[in-house]
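User: Okay, second chain of the day. Same drill as before: sequence in, structure tokens out.
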Amino acid sequence: MRPIAHKGAPLAQVLGAVAPIWAQVRRGQSLERALRDRARAPGAASDPAQLAAVRYVCHDALRHLALIEALLARLAPRAPAPQVTGLLAAALSQLLDSAYADHVVVDQAVTAARADRGLRPASGFVNAVLRSFLRRRATLVPQLMAIDATRLNVPPWWLARVQRDHPARWQGALATAHRAPPLVLRVNRRRVDVDTYLARLHGEGIDASRVGDSAVWMHRARPVELIAGFADGLVSVQDAGAQLAAPWLDARDGMHVLDACAAPGGKTGHLAELSQANIDAVELDAERAARIDDNLRRLGLLGPRVRVLIGDAARADSFWDGRPYQRILLDAPCTGSGVVRRHADIPWLRRDSDVAQLATIQAGLLDALWPLLAPAGRLLYVVCSVFREEAAQQADSFLERHPNARLVPLPGTQHGSLQLLPAGADPFELDATVGLPTVHDGFFFALFEKV
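Assistant: Same drill. Structure tokens below.
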């Protein structure tokens, strides 16, 4: 049972709110955009408890998307309308997780249908499908979960690609990506040391552990506004794997540093916390660039040494003043295949052909930024992807195109670059042998030096 997620929010209202959001996502809209659209709609609920519950159930349903759609193909005599499918998906996710007693979920789903003029004619259909699921659950669920793509909640093409790229590790990586993510913080060590911050959490009765140089894992997730010191800039939310990028770039005091494709500014903030480097944070989208400013302001780091520039990282003339950079961080646009546990909609918004298209964009960014790097300077290429075409294959191609680039070996590597697959371990701790966290999202890192 998981009642905390829905306390203070009537289940029927939550299920009814999730229905159109599900339909939007299945039409190709990102979950975050669909949630924003719903929140701005006339008459939308503004109660924080209900908004949190809607978000929770959306994520929960998306983590079961493959199973839910396979179930509906067996349970529904005809394909339901998109919003009816959304209501059924929301209700089935709660039945699959035993979030409430079965009869409560069925009753509240029917109530939600009757409360919506567009769904009202389908209320009997919703009741029949959910009751059919309850009768057949013991047989249908194990049968469908025997299929790898259904059990791991990815499209067949996605499964095939991960199996091909990581033949020995695909099951663990995809199984981890299917779980809810841990909440990891980055401590702003300009403002507080990690041990002092941990002592504050423990003094407030909050269980937490140190899992990296600046990383703290909160054993129980909570909204950011309730995280001690967040509003004051003492900490930021950032995965332990993502926290490796800024230290590995090794930007030093006085260096001229470029953070390309910088929004929302997590790595920009980390770079500014670690040194007195002069940083240009470049972002194409003005709205997203404003989020970098917001993050830097919260951290107490907004000032003349960190410039937020609106420009296209693929076109140097849109932002560059001609001064070479000693360090460049390129956190390139990618499929996001390494952060699925944080964004369960990602596999269902992508197509197989997107991988090659994004790899072309990544190569273009690398080639555009390389001339901006000073001799002996370093460029760190990062993608939150587990696909080789965006990762090791991209790094190899770059080295072939640029004979004046050499690969700088990273910790825990044999060949220089590093592929982290989504991973979880018990206990959650730092692997002291290589300095890597044992729980992290999926990332690829390659550090190039200009020779």
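Residues 63 and 344 are 6 Å apart (CA to CA).

User: Thanks, on to the next one.
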